[in-house]
Amino acid sequence: HYRETSATLLALARNFVELGNIQKARDFINNALQTGLENSDTLIQAAAYRELSYLLAEVNQPDSALNYSHRGLALFKKKGDSLEISVLYGRKSRIFFEKKDYSESKRYAYQALIIDSLVGNRRGLGISYFQVAQNEYVLGNINKAIGQLRQSIRINSDIGNLTWQIKAHELLAAFYLGQD
Q1: Cβ–Cβ < 8 Å for 137, 145
Q2: Three-class SS of residue 33?
Q3: Which sign, positive or negative, has the C-alpha torsion 135, 137, 140, 141?
Q4: What span, in angstroms and rounded, lies between the C-alpha atoms of 66 and 88?
Q5: Residues 91, 71: contact at Cβ < 8 Å?
Q6: CA distance 83 to 104
Q7: Cα(35)–Cα(4) distance, rounded to whole angstroms?
Q8: Are 96 and 132 in contact (CB under 8 A)?
Q9: pTM flag (> 0.85)
Q10: pLDDT per position as a tens digit, 12-63
């Protein structure tokens, strides 16, 4: 019963982050984390750390977000949860990109891409190609970036992920407009 309650709390927290109610989201995450700690349930703890890293990334606290991403990764690795590992590699890529540490961002984006490819996570793969492309572009590898972005567009089109399809097309347009 406590696992379902914790999963619900974390889902609600995600919604509250997206709605901008950060304190309510934090409360839900902390409740889920406390439940995980009280029950020695490392999967709940890892999920709470994952959501806390998301919340902190959204409120521009990148170092704290990286800390909780790292904590979540350690627990998900012990559980062998490739999907969640990929999610957190993608999160770390995003955070390092925002910190303008493009080499580190690229490293995590490629790690996520490899895992997504191996486990058949097409949604994650489309996002990972996008992250790889934006890093390759800022690092001066324009042709490689365009190729990776085209992969992202193809995958996101195939699975009907309109949000990432739009982001990828916008980025591709920015690539071409920036090649004057």
Answers
A1: yes
A2: helix
A3: positive
A4: 9
A5: no
A6: 20
A7: 11
A8: no
A9: yes
A10: 999 999 999 999 999 999 999 999 999 999 999 999 999 999 999 999 999 9
Q: What's the CA gap between 66 and 56, in Å, rounded?
A: 9
177: buried, middle or exposed (CB in 10 Å: 19+, 13-18, 0-12)?
A: exposed
Which DSSP symbol is given to 20? T
Report, as an integer, the average pLDDT of 145-152: 95
Tokens of 154: 């193809």
CA–CA separation, 72 and 138 (whole Å): 28
Spatial distance between the Cα atoms of 174 and 159, rounded to a whole number of angstroms: 24
User: Residue 34 corresponds to which tokens in the numbers above?
Assistant: 């406390």
Task: Considering only the C-alpha atoms of the chain, give the largest distance between any 2 of them, rounded to a whole number of Å.
Answer: 59
> What pLDDT is recorded for position 176?
87
Report which of 43, 44, 89, 96 is spatially closest to residue 70, judged by C-alpha positions: 89
The 10s digit of each residue's pLDDT in 60-84 is 999 999 999 999 999 999 999 999 9
Residues in contact with 51: Cβ distance below 8 Å, sequence separation at least 6, in sequence order: 10, 13, 14, 29, 32
First vs last C-alpha separation in the chain: 59
Q: What is the rounded CA–CA span in Å between residue 112 and residue 117?
A: 8
pLDDT surpassing 60 at residue 107? yes
Residue the block writes with tokens 């909780």 = 68
